[in-house]
Amino acid sequence: MRAYAQxxxxxxxSAQVLIILGLTGCQPSETKPSxxxxxxxxxxxxxxxxxxxxxxxxxxxxxxxEIKKRxxxxxxxxxxxxxxxxxxxxxxxxxxxxxxxxxxxxxxxAEGEWNQVQAVSREMLKSCDNxxxxxxxxSLTVExxxxxxxxxxxxxxxxxxxxxxxxxxxxxxxxxxxPSSR
Length: 182
Fold this sequence. Notes:
Elements: H1 2-24, H2 60-79, H3 83-105, H4 111-137, H5 146-158
Region (Disordered): 29-56
């Protein structure tokens, strides 16, 4: 009888937890990043869910390409004297750099290469810190981006190792299909 009472309590508590989780579900995020460049701000950035921004690259290769594009934008903005745009681009660049190890981990990349992705990503974030400091000092030059560019080139060399995992097809039934009798 005691085991029956314990299992009833467990069942009731489990049901309550499931109901609470079912009622809360995915909640819309409360804030949207205001410091993102306007090309990344979209009306439906999070589609009412908090699963990450819609501009997050799907693959490691796409993230590396996006970082390259952002660095090119920074060059243009810097030579044009638009330091405020550079500051915004660096914020976005950091976000893409943070995603690199995660995206590389979603592939069949070997551990050694993944460790390189992670180490170079850390170096890139430190370089972003240096760029931020130069921006605050008002002394940022194109030459100050050379570390970021050389670190990006290291990531580019790792792209061929980021082979996407094949999608696994799981049959719904283990019974063999009967041939149709037409």
